[in-house]
Fold this protein.
Amino acid sequence: MFKNTSEPQRPQAPQPVNTPRTHHDEIETVVGPSVVVEGDFSSEGNILVKGTVSGNVQTGKLLTVEEGAKILANIKAGDALVSGEIKGNVRAEDKLHVTESGRILGDIYCRVLEVESGAIIHGKVTMTDIEIEDIRADRKRTTSRTRSKVEILPEETEEAL
């Protein structure tokens, strides 16, 4: 009785929640899988690393480190998506997302940190732009120590001998 005259619906892959604020076609620089960059690397656009970079990496936008890629230095980026390995400190001005295959061996500084199950992070994590109240300042002393002074009179010492 009813026929579907439209094209069949193809299943779409689910879109990850809170993906970084860029698209794949906006990538400005690609370090291919067979490329090894030695020295500092800086760009104003999005960077996609598929190979190896041995030097500091800096971008004001998105840095993507694909699975199998390695960066052996410090990183500074607007946002970062890490599926490969980083041996160095990572500073993301906004969001750092570490996938299940991601490995970071170094300190992390970011505003938002997303870590998938299976990811490895070995280092200190500091989340910026967050105000933390000093708990110690609010804590009241529950115990107080009083010093008592005991005087021994000369008469008592003679009697004790």
